[in-house]
Amino acid sequence: MKKENISPSCFLFSVLFLFMCFSLESHVCFAVDTISSDQSLSGNQTVVSSGGVFELGFFRPGNSSNYYIGMWYRKVSQLSIVWVANREKPVHDINSSVLKISDGNLVLSNGSRVPIWSTYVSSGSVISNSAVAVLLDDGNLVLRDGLNSSTILWQSFDHPADTWLPGSKLRFDKRTNQSQSIISWKSLDDPAPGLFSFEIDPFQTNQIVTVWNRSQTYWFSGTWDQQTMSFSLVPEMRMVALSSLAFNFSYVSEENESYFIYYYYNSSTIAKYFMDSSGQMKEMTWLENIKQWTVFYSQPRQQCEVYGFCGAFGSCNENQPFCNCLNGFQPTSPQNWDQEVYSGGCARKTKLGCDNHSVGTGKGDQFLESRYTNLPTNPQNTMAVTSMECKATCIQNCSCTAYAFENNQCSIWIGDLFNLKQLEQDDITGKLLYIKLAASEIDSESSPTNKRRVIVIPIAVSTGLLLLGLMMFIIMKRRRTIISPKSAKGSLVAFEYRDLEKATKNFSEKLGKGGFGFVFKGTLPDGSIIAVKKLESINQGEKQFRTEVSIIGKINHVNLVRLRGFCSEGSRKLLVYDYVSKGSLDRHLFHGLASEPLDWKTRYQISLGVARGLAYLHENCVDSIIHCDIKPENILLDVDNFPKLADFGLAKLLGREFSRVLTTMRGTVGYLAPEWISGVAITPKADVYSYGMMLLELVSGMRNFEPANDKEGTFFPVWAARQVSEGVNVLNLLDDRLHGNVDLEEVCRICKVACWCIQENEIQRPSMGQVVQILEGFFDVSIPPMPRFLQEIGNDRSTYISSPT
Ligand SMILES: *[C@@H]1O[C@H](CO)[C@@H](O)[C@H](O)[C@H]1NC(C)=O
Ligand SMILES: *[C@@H]1O[C@H](CO)[C@@H](O)[C@H](O)[C@H]1NC(C)=O
Ligand SMILES: *[C@@H]1O[C@H](CO)[C@@H](O)[C@H](O)[C@H]1NC(C)=O
Ligand SMILES: *[C@@H]1O[C@H](CO)[C@@H](O)[C@H](O)[C@H]1NC(C)=O
Ligand SMILES: *[C@@H]1O[C@H](CO)[C@@H](O)[C@H](O)[C@H]1NC(C)=O
Ligand SMILES: *[C@@H]1O[C@H](CO)[C@@H](O)[C@H](O)[C@H]1NC(C)=O
Ligand SMILES: *[C@@H]1O[C@H](CO)[C@@H](O)[C@H](O)[C@H]1NC(C)=O
Ligand SMILES: *[C@@H]1O[C@H](CO)[C@@H](O)[C@H](O)[C@H]1NC(C)=O
Ligand SMILES: *[C@@H]1O[C@H](CO)[C@@H](O)[C@H](O)[C@H]1NC(C)=O
Ligand SMILES: *[C@@H]1O[C@H](CO)[C@@H](O)[C@H](O)[C@H]1NC(C)=O
Ligand SMILES: *[C@@H]1O[C@H](CO)[C@@H](O)[C@H](O)[C@H]1NC(C)=O
Ligand SMILES: *[C@@H]1O[C@H](CO)[C@@H](O)[C@H](O)[C@H]1NC(C)=O
């Protein structure tokens, strides 16, 4: 690391090194990892750690015109800043700005020699003349005594920016009761400390928390368990072991400090924890083969769970744009909102009368009634017992901004309103909130635009069918398409019943029967082949039916069967899909049905395709769509055995009826997650469970719940999970028709994934996005534990399979 004298070979090395750097990018390197007292860094010069891992120099973030001293991964082709020195005070001219050792400190000064940033180590000590700054390969910039390298005066690991690097401590100082915070950037263009941070819980429970504005905690990791190597509320950490992401994460408690620290076992792994400016703490890995950062997980998982994400008087939803201002309010900084930085929140368009002393207390202020999924945080309860009294309480207090009266309980809010979540379209179940606005705002809110909404609703209710019928008529006369408002691509055809009758030759060619009706093959006049599903037992209103159908129609993914159109004439409800030539997977997979068994490569491609389709439904759709009925019957294969998922969106389309049919349908039950039976809320993780069950069938080529597939008298999934969790040869699980012609690594991977997917506790199951990454081979998974639930029902399978309630 230190070069005492220049030998010829060393000189050659330096020249070579310089040459390499020139050919790399715009940054010219210093060719050394050290800034000593006679050197300085400016312009496009940089310092590189001895192993070439990290580089330090000036950089310009995003579209900003400001420059900062930062540190980045040298080997990562996309500039990825892990540390910034002068976060709050940029410089503007890098050619005249200088970073150098001055009076024992590392100091950045601008063109006028004004110090902008410094390590602020008390100066004047004996070693101040010999101090040197060294950039180490773990990303630590160390200021130390040049004569005695074990005397460390300052290190960047003690002053992190938004990134917690492997090998650095996330500390709690027991002497000052202070936690060290990892603080987000304000925005992609501005590395100044933002509102979000994470730190060790200052109450000394061994967990990590995320914090808004240094004061409000909004997510807890749960306590650390060294045994299972995971936080109690982040059990997916357990799954990520071995290969690239395997780490040694530990909690250490000493006399003066406690800290978390982690290392990746594979030192070539480029990965980090950081606090995103969205308020989510993320673990990201650089995948060199695709030259991209991949988020392995983010916490909290939902954007709207981030405290204050939309700022004061903003409301949040899970779709872009994530935030809107409440009625009567506007963004405090429209530029920031355009850049998706919402935390500045919203301000009143018109001052309250109460704040205008010439008007007098409360005069001229009124309340706007609004519905949200929740009420704002930090309510204050009052003694008021009627709605009128509640309102009066709020009117009388000038700082009161809103009230709610629910279950005879009056709550008022003082000051800014935070964390409101918007209702989904058409949802009328939300909570009522009365927001105080200047009278002129109420007038404008309830004039033109708002009045229309008020009027349309009663009309829609009373004469909705008539209007819709009329609209249908007009639309069908015109072009027979309903044009979805946003995407022209997703336009659906509204078919007439008799056209479909003709196309399907009076519903003569049956393709199959699901729980929700028969499917028929048909041919349209233009020659294209379609599959027509006649829905039974639909109890959805006309309007909602159309809303849901148009949502399904907009979904477009190669692993999903495309919806082309629909027919809705009274009780006749039909869906028209692209025809997928080879039919459903069960016909090609299971013993006795398939003439020719699917080879291993095809099975693996099917599992990956289905995972991609599901991940798309869960993670990329406007509203996350839970399929609810994953099973081989709903996986269709095209001519190249490429899988396409059918029947997605039906769960919402059919409403309550769906789950009733689902849980009483014999064939489906073996795929249903335990939460279907226990009656708790269904999340996308229910699909993950069904998917896991299906993976086991892909491996074995037999139905899980067929007695013929029992092994040693045990329910197959139980037996399979035991083999996997005990690390027995997974080839035992394999379909014998494959004669062992498989990729052993892929079989292992699928079996482990399947077993993680069927864990009883849904939080332990991976997300579909993670499943895709694992099956693609980017991440490895550890040996899953035995799913407890299965073990229990394994002995009493008959009750589970045939009589759910
Ligand atoms: C970097 O600095 C060197 C020396 O001042 C100069 O020759 C070179 O053009 C600079 N490169 C860029 C991209 O500014
Ligand atoms: C920079 O500006 C371009 C064009 O205005 C925009 O597309 C891009 O998203 C901006 N990048 C950042 C990081 O703000
Ligand atoms: C710094 O100097 C280089 C050439 O020496 C020049 O190309 C570059 O534009 C200058 N940068 C700034 C920010 O003035
Ligand atoms: C250096 O910083 C000082 C104080 O912030 C400022 O007044 C001065 O204009 C800056 N000089 C340059 C060249 O940017
Ligand atoms: C270097 O400093 C350490 C403590 O900071 C001390 O223990 C050691 O004796 C010093 N070594 C020399 C050669 O001065
Ligand atoms: C730190 O907190 C502990 C317990 O909460 C308390 O006993 C101690 O006095 C505090 N120390 C300081 C310096 O505030
Ligand atoms: C954050 O807290 C500080 C005081 O601790 C306060 O002045 C500031 O307004 C807060 N920021 C927001 C966005 O509420
Ligand atoms: C993990 O890290 C801790 C603390 O640094 C250390 O004590 C332990 O030996 C490490 N374990 C392994 C398996 O490397
Ligand atoms: C803790 O701090 C005290 C006082 O600052 C010091 O004497 C002691 O050596 C420290 N303990 C450790 C383990 O560093
Ligand atoms: C470490 O990671 C690199 C790159 O991800 C990989 O090529 C290498 O095989 C890994 N080494 C081990 C021992 O797993
Ligand atoms: C205060 O009230 C008076 C009288 O209604 C009005 O003319 C004035 O514009 C108001 N001022 C503000 C700042 O709203
Ligand atoms: C308004 O209510 C808050 C909370 O109840 C109270 O602290 C404050 O003093 C009240 N202000 C007035 C003017 O009554």
Automatic annotation (TrEMBL):
Localization, UniProt = Cell membrane
- Residues engaged in binding ATP: 534
Q: Does the keyword Transferase apply?
A: yes
InterPro entries from the UniProt entry? Bulb-type_lectin_dom, Bulb-type_lectin_dom_sf, Kinase-like_dom_sf, Pan_app, Prot_kinase_dom, Protein_kinase_ATP_BS, S_locus_glycoprot_dom, Ser/Thr_kinase_AS
Tell me the membrane topology, using the record's own terms.
Single-pass type I membrane protein
Transmembrane regions listed in the UniProt entry = 455-476
Please give the Gene Ontology molecular function terms for this protein.
ATP binding; carbohydrate binding; protein serine/threonine kinase activity
Its protein name is Receptor-like serine/threonine-protein kinase
